[in-house]
Every structure is written in C-alpha cells, then in structure tokens.
Design brief:
By secondary structure, the chain is an alpha/beta fold. The protein folds into three domains: 158 residues, no CATH class; 122 residues, NAD(P)-binding Rossmann-like Domain (Rossmann fold); 194 residues, no CATH class. Helices cover 47% and strands 12% of the residues. It contains 15 helices and twelve strands. The radius of gyration is 28 Å and the shape is flat. The two termini are 30 Å apart.
Length: 503
C-alpha cells in the first residue's frame, strides 16, 4: 500500500529538518557517551582484577605465590563473560533510570545518584548470578572493587564533561538559541536570568510580544523585540530557534495551547512559566532561572533503548503465543465463514505512529456492507468525541458478537505486531476520519506505536470517555516501563473474560 502520510495528518516535514538534525546530533552524543561509559565500566573491572589478583588488596603483605599460583587464582579471561554481562546490565539500568535524558539544568548530584544506584543494583545482580553457578570460584572482593571503581570513574567523567560544557557555554561556544514569548513581567525576569547566567548555555535571540515596551524594539536596551506572537513559526524557522520559553501574562493564556502546538509541529522544545495558570501535565521537568520556575512536559519515554526493549518484548511474546493463537485463529476463521458470507479477516486503513497509515487486520464481526450502512446509523452513535460505537449494533453477526465480547476479533493484529506496525500495548489505532476530528492535544497519542490493548481497555474498555482515553494514552507514553506493560496485559485478561465495556 501507499506508505505516504494521510492528508489529514500529514505534518510539515520541511519545517522539522532543523529539529531532526539537532536530534541526530543528540543521538550521536548519546551513543558516544554510552560507549565511553561502557569502556570505563570495562576498565573499572580490569582495575578491580589488578587490585585483587595482582596487587593482592587488601593484604599486600600476603605472599604473592600463594595467591597467584594457588587454588584461588583465576585468570582474567574467566572474568570476560562476567564483565560483558555487567556492561549489558548497566546499560539497561542507565537507560531506564534516565541517565542520558537528564534535563539541561541537572547538576553533578543528579548524575551521581543514578550512577550509584544503578551500579549497586548491577553489582548485586551480578553477584547473585555468578555465585549461583560458581559459588567458590571467584573472589567476592573483586565485585566490591569493581563497583567502587565504576562509580568513581563514571562520576569523574561527568565532572569533566560538566566542566567542559559550562566553560564552552560561558565562552559562547555551542550555545542553544532561545526565544522568549512575552516581554513583560515574568518574561523580562526570565530574560534577565538568561543574560545573567551564561553558564546555562543559552543565547537569547529576543522576545515576541504584540505590544513591545519601547519604540526602539528593546527592553532596557538589552533584549530585542523580534515580532508579534503570530510570528512564532516564521521566527523559529528564520532564526534557527532551539528552545522557546512561554512567559505570557495571564490575559494571553487563551493563546497558550496554540503556541504550544506550533512548537510541537516544528519540533522545537518549549518551557512554560506558570503565572496564575495551571497545566494538566502529570509529569514535568522544572528548570529555574533566577528563581523563575520553567515547566516542560516530560518527553515520551518510548524512544531509544526503551523502544528497542519494548520491541524485543513484543516479538518474544507474540512468537511464544503462536502455538496457542494460530490454531485458535484458524478455527475462528472457519466459524466466521460458516456464519455469514464474506472474508474471515477484515482489513481497514488506520493511523499509526507519527500519522503513518497502515493496514489494520481483525476478524470480521459485521456484515460485509457494514461501512456502507454507517451513515444511516449515525444517530445511534453512543460514543463521545470522534469515535463511533453502538451498544447493540444491528450490523454485528452472531459469531461477531461473541468475538467482540471476548476480544478474540483482535487476534489477527498479532501479525501487525510482528511487522512492527503495532505493539502489544499502546494507544488503540484510530481511523483517518477520527484523527481529522482530533483537537491539538489529542494528537500527542500519535507519537506512540498503537497497541493491541491499552490502559483504557484494561480499566474500562468502551465505557471510558474519549478524552479520558487520550489522557490515559498520554500518561502511558510519558510513564512507560516494562512493568507497566505487563500490568496492563494482566489487567486486560479479566476485562476480556467478563466482557466489561465491550460492544
């Protein structure tokens, strides 16, 4: 099928090229830092081996011969699998704890806390695994030495990198271009804070305001007025803006959501200065500039290593389920064909991640002309928002009603999971005409791969309102973890068995 974006959700890709380039640079920096950490983890273990088996710590006066040639001697080659296992475990822990996703204002203690907790957890797991298989072979002290060495080395690297970063920023090197929206009150206070703290790494381009304070376009002869609020997209494109700070007075907050949507459309990060206004963000990062809190919604958790980990789990669970689901699918296909004329599998275009259309499969539960009859049943729609659902839909067949109540009509979507178009858990894929009716904040659910089940289905299925479903989808995307996926899958089982909210 044509993989081009559906006209309803086609983003302005040309406007995002600069953002994509910035993301590519951040990804390269991420991989480089991860590789450096892994090298230091390996070196930390090598140093631990030297401390225990060569320098014979903590008893350097003990005869070397008895240590090196005795029963307790272990060549370093024997530790290679253990070292590699530790590197893998620490990579997963660092990624899941967000070591490489800390905000710009994070200090050394933020990094040190994650490094310390992750290393302690990794060493503890390693000791359990190693001494379960070879309890009397390795020295226990080598693992303690390795943990201490790794923490020290990784913390020293962070001190070095933070020092280099702040030095470069203070010299104006590698700074990110920032735009403030709002030139009065908090906006001016934010700009004063940016100018007073070059170590933050920001270059203040100027501010947007419909009514600049002075006729010469400057505030206090420092900050340049670069346009009105309606010029936001043009200024971002022409001036290469990396970040936007929204510091609007309370009487302009009705324009806030539109400005936020413009930032998201252009792929530019943004912060919000709270001023007699509250946003419904479940999780936020807070950065302070001269005592002014800047609020930024958490990024989607499903990216990078988290996305790779989720994809691995999807494939593994889908493949392991095949001995059960494949014979069941063949039996259900036969029953559908015997019950009513038409194909057993229903195909439909749905909207997936980033607005990409894909072919959606499920067992047919309605008569073959169901789509043609949809218009005549529009007055019976019982769902809110852009959804279309009827509790006692006359188009549903006898077998189809059973399949819907048991959710067995979703089985063919395992093929989409294996193809990577869907996940086991994620927002349910929407129809193009439904997406066309989305409000701007609804589109955030399109940033995640759609799923066979979701948090809304686990909690109440069709009984959950559309807005509540979207909020749950966004919460899932921002708070994802393996444990959450497993809990949703387990919560879905009783919902399917009881048929709660299914129609």
């Amino acid at each position: 099928m044509n993989r081009s974006l559906h006209p309803v959700v086609r983003p302005t890709l040309a406007l995002k090229q600069g953002s994509m380039e910035s993301r590519r640079h951040r990804w390269i920096a991420h991989i480089s830092l991860l590789a450096s950490d892994l090298i230091l983890v390996f070196f930390g273990f090598v140093l631990a081996y030297w401390m225990r088996y060569i320098a014979i710590w903590p008893d350097p006066l003990k005869p070397i011969v008895s240590e090196v040639t005795g029963y307790n001697y272990v060549p370093f080659d024997a530790f290679l699998p253990t070292t590699l296992l530790l590197m893998v475990v620490l990579t997963i822990l660092f990624e899941t704890k967000g070591l490489y996703r800390l905000s710009r204002g994070s200090g050394f203690l933020d990094y040190a806390g994650i490094i310390l907790s992750s290393t302690l957890t990794g060493i503890a797991l390693l000791i359990v695994v190693v001494f379960f298989y070879r309890p009397f072979y390795f020295s226990r002290l080598i693992f303690a030495f390795a943990g201490v060495n790794i923490v020290i080395l990784l913390c020293l690297l962070r001190i070095l990198l933070l020092g280099i970063r702040h030095w470069r920023w203070s010299k104006g090197i590698g700074q990110e271009r920032i735009l403030v929206i709002g030139g009065k009150g908090l906006g001016q206070q934010v700009m004063n804070g940016i100018a007073a703290q070059p170590g933050l790494g920001y270059h203040l381009v100027g501010y947007l305001d419909d009514h600049p304070i002075s006729s010469n376009g400057r505030i206090g002869r420092i900050y340049r007025h670069v346009g009105a609020l309606s010029d936001l997209e043009a200024v971002i494109q022409t001036r290469g803006i990396h970040h936007v700070i929204l510091a609007l007075p309370f009487w302009d907050h009705d324009r806030l959501l539109r400005l936020i949507q413009s930032c998201r459309t252009l792929g530019v990060s943004y912060h919000v200065v709270p001023d007699l206004y509250q946003l419904s963000f479940d999780r936020v990062d807070v950065l302070q500039i001269s005592g002014v809190p800047l609020i930024t919604p958490k990024e989607i958790s499903l990216q990078g290593w988290n996305l790779a980990l989720k994809r691995t789990m999807d494939i593994a669970l889908a493949v392991l389920s095949l001995p059960l689901t494949l014979p069941l699918a063949l039996l259900l296909a036969l029953l559908i064909r015997l019950d009513s004329p038409g194909p057993a599998v229903f195909r439909q275009v749905r909207i997936g991640k980033d607005g990409q259309p894909f072919t959606f499969y499920k067992f047919r539960t309605m008569v073959v002309d169901a789509e043609a009859r949809k218009a005549e049943l529009s007055d019976l729609n019982e769902a809110d928002g852009p959804l279309f659902k009827i509790r006692r839909d006359p188009r549903v067949t006898r077998v189809g009603r059973f399949l819907r109540c048991s959710s067995l009509d979703e089985l063919p979507q395992l093929w989409s999971v294996l193809r990577g178009e869907m996940s086991l858990v994620g927002p349910r894929p929407a129809l193009p005409e439904e997406v066309a009716c989305y409000e701007s904040w609804h589109r955030r659910r399109l940033e995640v791969t759609p799923g066979l089940t979701c948090l809304a289905q686990a909690l109440g299925r069709s009984d959950v309102s559309f807005d509540e479903m979207v909020r749950l989808d966004i919460y899932y995307a921002e708070n994802w973890s393996i444990g959450m996926d497993l809990r949703i899958l387990l919560m879905t089982v009783p919902a399917v068995i009881t048929g709660t909210g299914a129609y």
